[in-house]
Design brief:
rod-shaped
């Protein structure tokens, strides 16, 4: 029995499909018509995981650069996406913080007003 090895034609096809967003399971199924196709997912990952990881990293880098460039140029949607994904920001947290500040300010104002009425202005 011949030892299975990495096939350049399969690797290229794996890269093309990964770049297009095809799922790993569908890529595995699509390459089964090649003579040297791995018969198991374990073998598939052994020989072609690096190809998929490389393409995913390149794709994320290209898209990320575009989003960051647009955000820096003032595009609100890109700014929001970046802050949500990388900055830990969410509109809900901002809204809650503002509400909490308002409640604290209201409480301080009420205390100050009460102190004035009682003649306790220290």
């Amino acid at each position: 029995m011949q030892q299975l090895k990495r096939n350049g034609h399969i690797a290229n096809r794996v890269k093309e499909m990964t770049r297009a967003g095809v799922s790993v399971r569908d890529i595995f199924g699509a390459i089964q018509n090649y003579a040297d196709a791995p018969a198991s997912m374990t073998s598939f990952y052994k020989y072609y995981r690096q190809d998929m990881d490389e393409v995913r990293a390149e794709t994320v880098e290209k898209i990320g650069n575009k989003v960051v460039d647009q955000a820096l140029e003032g595009d609100y949607k890109s700014q929001e996406l970046y802050l949500r994904s990388k900055g830990g920001w969410s509109p809900q947290e901002t809204q809650n913080s503002k509400e909490a500040e308002s409640e604290m300010e209201e409480a301080e104002s009420a205390i100050d007003a009460l102190a004035r009425l009682l003649g306790k202005n220290d």
